[in-house]
Amino acid sequence: MSGGNGQPSADTAGERQAEPARIALLETLQNDDKTWEKLAPRYGVTNPDPPWKVSLYATCECLAAGAALPALERRHAEDQLGETVYSGTPGPEQQLLALAHIMLSRGLLSEEDLARRMDAVRSRLEAC
Amino acid sequence: MQHSHDHTDGDRDHGRHEHPAAPMVNEITDFEVLEIAVRELAIEKGLFTAEDHQKFTEWAEQIGPAAGSRLVAKAWSDPAYKTRVLTDAVAACHEIGIDWTEPTGSGTPSDYMNLRVLEDTPTVHHVIVCTLCSCYPRPLLGHSPYWYRSPNYRRRLIRWPRQVLTEFGLSLPPEVEVRVEDSNQKCRFMVLPMRPEGSGSWTEKQLAEIVTRDCMIGVALPRTGRTSDDVRPVHKARRPVAHEEQHAETGQ
What we know:
Chain A is built from 6 helices and no strands. Chain A is an all-alpha fold. Chain B folds into 2 domains: 28-62, no CATH class; 64-248, Nitrile hydratase alpha /Thiocyanate hydrolase gamma (Nitrile Hydratase, Chain A). In chain B, helix 3 packs across helix 4, helix 3 packs across helix 10 (204-210) and helix 8 (151-159) crosses helix 9.
């Protein structure tokens, strides 16, 4: 896995945070042209949020409820990643990339498993 | 895209008609795929169950600022209810059908069941923030907007509240004190704004329409004719600071 430690909590007070290591798989997904902000108006959709945002929220809450990823630790890592690695990606997409990054960094998921599953999910969604 | 269809199975409510289908994004993005993949793997690894995920999803789909709008409108219309809102906000929420114990019986991991409603007066204006993360009264207001979650808003509001409010289009006279209430992980806050002039004869339903999310955060004021919030940009923070430093600067 190419990911690094996504936790900012080890930083000392007032110290500038080092940029977290980048994760190759997630780097390839940062396509600004495919964010909801860009896609929705292209299709005349007025919903300000992508349909998957609610599910992302539920995933975050479930991870916190089961103590796999406490909410405060996730939010701190989201802040750090949002200001560094994913600073060019807007709201919900940034939150999603950050969550995946944190889970990979903590070994909750492996990059290989995630890549494989993404291929499988895409094939399923595109099947006729 | 339009489509038409017949209902010939005795559906009395529909009959023959045409209506446009709601537009939808007709392509599969990597982001959609990533969200599904992360969720499925997490369930397979036993980090949570599909049932738990469904429970949180269903809850999250039905929350929104309309609940807070109803609470404010009722408080404006019923002085006894307003007293209950200010003394025991969680119980007062129950009266309008908002149960802070949902969806688990003890709330969500991110929403402490302790709410304080802050009443604006002619001389005091409240605005809420969470400098630590993005605590927000979700059972009443729904999901927080991204600008509220942004480090930029969280860091700057406590330092320069009047200037930040002005950026939102809210200029307050100097004689009005601005109080920034910082969520402290154990308490959620919501603003009870002042009822605007010209709404004296309005029903609760009419009043609720002008109580937007931004009014209950405190970055806007309700006024007759204003029924929706502007889209706010999310500014980047140019000089990121460590959380420890940021929190030490925060006052209650």
